[in-house]
Amino acid sequence: MTLLQRVTLQVPASQPEGMVMLMAAVGQWTGAETKALRLAMRLSIRDFAHRLDVAPRTVARWEARGTTLILSHDSQGLVDTVFARVSAEVQERFSVELEAANPVASEALVPVSTDADATVQLPVVIDGRFLLVPLDDVDMTAGGLEALLGDATGMRLVEHSIAAEADTMNPLDRRAFLKAGFGFAAWSALNPDEQAHVAAALETPSRSVDHSVIGYFERQLHTYMADDGTQGPAKTLPAALGLVAAVEQSARDVDPELRRQLLAVGSRIAEFVGWLYRDVHDPLKAGFWRDQATEWAQEAGDPAMQGYILLKKAQAAYDERDALRMLTLAQAVRTGPWRLPMRVQADAAQQEARGYAMLGQNQALVERTLDQAQQLLADAPDAADDEGEQLGAHYNATLLRMQMAICHTEAGQPQRAAELYQQWLQNEQFSTRDYGYFSALMASALALGGEPDEAARVGLVAWPLAAETNSGRTTAELQKVLETLQPWQGRVAVRELREVMSTQQSQRPSCQRMPH
Questions:
Q1: Does residue 375 sit in helix, strand or coil?
Q2: Using CA of residue 322, residue 323, residue 326, residue 328, what is the dihedral sign?
Q3: How many Cα atoms are found within 13 Å in the side-chain-facing hemisphere of 76?
């Protein structure tokens, strides 16, 4: 399918005098465009599903997957029919919703002129990107319009430093863009031959997918995971979503055993996407992707991954301070019917201890469970000697000490927690994002321990790191710090922290919003 075929233009039968407006019809519906249409029609998910004659759960799944899900041929037709019947007002709101959902592209928007002598703007929707192009500058022949659309597509790929000329794209650029929504530069871990192999796999899975392609996906995931701590979710999330879509695409039309192996990798990627959405502080999407990871792990016959995802759900419960759910999930990890690496078991034990602390259980029980976590980690094989075990490979003694500090804070021992942070929290031990997060928790412990000036000082260290890595999770913890510091809001350091956070949040450009 060519770019020209994916975009059609409609001219309304009637329009205000002195104004020419060409409305765009979406040539390929993804979950993102479907959500924009529903919002423009001002319908609930249930009512919108009724209009389409599909299940509400189906619509919810489309929207949660966003641009990574391309609707089936039959579903495309259903949405086309609904869209063709909406009013001009709804079409206008649809365009606005697309603009809001794609803030990077929206910077290129200018209003359509109502002056008859002014240059007419051509609204075009290209794979979810809403663009306005001066009509006077457009060669309206098929070749000229296709060249224009090729350039517009290049605008989307600029995020990955890809050349805008469609005819100079290598096959992987074109196919990955069509199939998975991301381009050549996203495959940073692969050499040109490997990139070509992946391109063929996306085009014809039944003939081109083999075990080497699975290895390529795994290597690419590890690259994204390594980059995440420095770049943050704003840059990593689009590429990770593209990767999970590529795996899902390649898992079609292959033999059952190969599909299970692909979905085993896909489960790990989906869990990583869930983590990125957790860091963005979007628990709904994070939960969706953890559930998707669980489903794929079950289909792949990977029970250990299922237990690992339960641990991630327990960790996410702490963000909401849901102590009971966190505790029972951590206990389920430790008692479930799976064999988990000892590092994962250690992580689950400290999570269980934190749940006890938050629920006010006996301190001896908290300490005993933390001792179990330390012993499990001490008994774990060295990560360098256990290359075949991926789950929990990052977990080490320094990270456990940070989590023990969190546990002491929740147990009403903030001074003890602050001592652990001061002793073990060093920036060379952590990624930029993680150092900012634990600094925010250290500031919280200091504030609870009655040291407002030091808490504010540490908060001023954490805040720019949260902004640099777009960590909504760290920002949320710093907001809690400000709440704790309210009794000392007149102090100079506390006032400075509040002013810095307030000023920089108000100045933060809309293009730094997270992708949906």
A1: helix
A2: negative
A3: 12
For residue 384, the model assigns a pLDDT of 53
Do 154 and 163 touch, CB atoms closer than 8 A? yes
CA distance 266 to 449: 44
Tokens of 189: 């871990």
Given a cut of 50, the residues of the chain with pLDDT beneath it are: 1-24, 103-185, 387-388, 509-516
Q: Are 36 and 97 in contact (CB under 8 A)?
A: yes
Residues, the chain = 516
Rounded to whole angstroms, the Cα distance separating 265 from 287 reads 19
Measure the CA–CA gap between 47 and 56, rounded to whole angstroms. Answer: 8
Convert the pLDDT of each residue in 80-90 to its tens digit: 888 888 888 88
Dump the DSSP string for 232-249. -HHHHHHHHHHHHHHHHH
- Of 149, 140, 96, 111, which is closest to residue 19 (Cα–Cα)? 111
Separation between Cα atoms, residue 208 and residue 111, nearest integer Å:
47
Q: Using an 8 Å Cβ cutoff, are 286 and 238 in contact?
A: no
End-to-end CA distance of the chain: 25
- Cβ–Cβ < 8 Å for 381, 416: no
**Pair 459, 478: CB distance under 8 Å:** yes
